[in-house]
Amino acid sequence: MERLRDSVVLVEGKKDERALEPYMESGKILKAAGRLETACRRASEIFSNCRGKAGGEAIVLMDRDSAGEELAVITKGELEANSIKADLETRKRLMAILRLTHIENFGKKYTEKLEELKEN
């Protein structure tokens, strides 16, 4: 979770953005769906304006369905074309830990996991 709080995170759409907003502190969420090139350009601008924000790395947090997998690969390529390192590992770990398929369910799954941990 700490990786998300201060990072630049690319998500697919508005529902995903709303799901993550409560968990972000100084990080930025950029919607990629429909405007991937714009989102990647904005990520590049954030890094150049903030000098080293998140170490020039963006977390790619797309859904774990076929469309999300495809968009994650495309997004990685676009980010790297803009000299930004794409973090797909955080996505993989979060999805596994929270048993999450769609980012829009992040809040619910995160709360469930916290409750599960309290019980154990």
Structural write-up:
The chain starts with a helix and ends with a helix. By secondary structure, it is an alpha/beta fold. The protein has one domain (2-119): Dna Topoisomerase Vi A Subunit, Chain: A, domain 2. Helices cover 55% and strands 12% of the residues. The longest helix has 16 residues, at 66-81. It has a 4-stranded parallel sheet with strand order 2-1-3-4. The chain has helices at 2-5, 14-20, 36-50, 66-81, 89-98, 106-119; strands at residues 8-11, 28-31, 57-60, 85-87.
Brief overview:
With about 120 residues, this protein is an alpha/beta fold. It is built from six helices and four strands.
How are the SSEs placed, and which strands pair?
Elements: H1 2-5, E1 8-11, H2 14-20, E2 28-31, H3 36-50, E3 57-60, H4 66-81, E4 85-87, H5 89-98, H6 106-119
Parallel strand pairs: 1-2, 1-3, 3-4
Whole-Å distance between the termini? Answer: 20 Å
Counting DSSP E segments of at least 2 residues, the number of strands comes to 4
The strand line-up of the biggest sheet is 2-1-3-4
Summarize the amount of helix as a percent range.
55-70%
Note the beta-strand portion.
5-15%
Q: What summary fits the major beta sheet?
A: 4 strands, parallel
Mean pLDDT: 82
**Backbone CA Rg:** 14 Å
Here the CATH topology equals Dna Topoisomerase Vi A Subunit, Chain: A, domain 2
Instruction: Give the overall shape, derived from the CA principal axes.
Output: globular
CATH architecture: 3-Layer(aba) Sandwich
Taken in chain order, the helices and strands follow as: HEHEHEHEHH
